[in-house]
Amino acid sequence: MQLSKYIIVICLSLFLINCGDTNTSKQTSLAINTNLKSAMLGDTLKLSVNNPKKLNIKEVSYQLNGETVDENYVLNAITLGEKTITATVKYDDNTEIISKSIKIYNNIIPSYYKYEVVNTYPHDITSYTQGLEFHNGELYESTGQKGESKLRKVNFETGEVLKNINLEDKYFGEGLTVLNDKIYQLTWRANTGFVYDVNTFEKLSTFDYGTSKEGWGICNDGETLFKSDGTEKIWLLNPDNLFEKSHIEVYTEKGKIPSLNELEWIDGKIFANIYQKNGVVIINPKTGGVEGVIDFKPLRKLVKQHPDLDVLNGIAYHPERKTIFVTGKNWDKLFEVTIKKQ
After folding, report:
1. Burial level of 340, CB count in 10 A (0-12/13-18/19+)?
2. Cα–Cα 20 to 30 A to 151, which of 95, 211, 330, 331?
3. What are the residue boundaries of the structural domains of the chain, listed by start?
4. Is the pLDDT of residue 273 over 80?
5. Which SS3 state, helix, strand or coil, does residue 218 take?
6. Domain 111-341 falls in which CATH fold?
7. Which strands form 233-237's sheet, in the order they lie side by side?
8. In angstroms, how far is CA 322 from the centroid of its own chain?
9. What is the CATH number of domain 24-105?
10. Predicted local distance difference test score (pLDDT) of residue 24
11. Which whole-number Å values give the CA distances from 306 to 52, 71, 299, 329, 331, in the listed order?
């Protein structure tokens, strides 16, 4: 009786596999052909199907990352990075879906920007700066390290702490941004973000990250939150429900830029620190393309040298003064700078 059960299960499994298997690529050898192994923004991608067995193909439709495209598709209205091309091929009474990966790079070389220090202010040397942002002329700062993470409002001219709350010891504080009188603060690997009232610092709610598993930097354009997770990806969040709507991947004309950290929205672009580097990249938020680079490395020599001194991190734009404020992890100075394309 037991043996009969096994035979029935095996036969049923074989029946289901034979009836349900619609992907016969090993038998048909269909494949997607492209004119480009990798592409740049603005290129024309030409698609076709390699059909070595001369199957009677009746119809082919193409998609690029889920969007229907023509067999001759100009790569303009698209974000950069690794994409998947799929082709739905109908032949005889069969339908087969085949796929292929392609990387899309930016089509410009990033411009180099020079900076000029216009003012220098004191900064708490014990603050492991993770997020920095101005709101209504006042500076807000988020700091990291377990047991030392804080959310602060600071008088940027004197360094005086105007308001402060400490995070629980289990949290490692990361970036922050202010939108609609709410502060959004990230934590690193706890998959948790916090929402506060900007005036009282009362914690209003918490949120999970979703697909992105870590919190690094965050900024906003007045409508959407942009969140980095330590990779080349920047996630777009709906501020009403904190769901990750989509993401962009940050690329130059040569490759991806990983380790994106603190973010700041400045005049329609995203400025991003790169972790363990003392530079900033300027990103087109529609494509993910890097359009500019600022090397702030010399600033590190202008701060107090001590064992806990770490890299540049912290970008805040002051819209009324039209200047950018930068500092670093455990830096004793906050620099106000202007930038100019070289």
Report:
1. exposed
2. 211
3. 24-105, 111-341
4. yes
5. strand
6. Neuraminidase (2.120.10)
7. 218-220, 225-228, 233-237, 244-249
8. 25
9. 2.60.40.1930
10. 37
11. 67, 59, 15, 12, 9
Question: How is residue 27 annotated by DSSP?
Answer: H
Return the percentage of the chain with pLDDT > 90, whole number: 87
Over 90: is that where the pLDDT of 341 sits?
A: yes
Please tell me the predicted confidence (pLDDT) of residue 38.
86
Transcribe 112-150 into DSSP letters.
EEEEEEEEEEE--TT-BEEEEEEETTEEEEEE-STTT-E
Compute the average pLDDT of residues 66-83.
Answer: 93
Tokens (6 digits) for 59? 């119809």
For residues 332 and 123, the answer to whether their CB atoms sit within 8 Å is: yes
What are the two backbone dihedrals, phi and then psi, of residue 319, each rounded to the nearest 5 degrees? -65, -30
DSSP conformation class of 87: E
The closest of 73, 93, 85 to 31, measured between CA atoms, is 85
Element (H, E) at 4: helix 2-20
The rounded distance, in Å, linking the Cα atoms of 32 and 19 is: 26
Dump strand ranges (E) for 137-289: 138-143, 150-154, 161-166, 173-179, 182-187, 192-197, 203-208, 218-220, 225-228, 233-237, 244-249, 260-266, 269-274, 279-283
The angle formed by the CA atoms of residues 191, 192 and 196, to the nearest 5 degrees, is: 160
Residue 252 to residues 42, 109, 284, Cα–Cα distance (Å): 14, 7, 11
d(C-alpha 335, C-alpha 261), whole Å: 19
pTM for the model:
0.88
Region of 40 (left: φ > 0; alpha: ψ -120 to 50; beta: rest) is beta
What distance in Å separates the CA atoms of residue 335 and residue 321, rounded to the nearest whole number? Answer: 14
- Residues 188/247, Cβ–Cβ less than 8 Å: no
Instruction: Give pLDDT, residue 28.
Output: 65
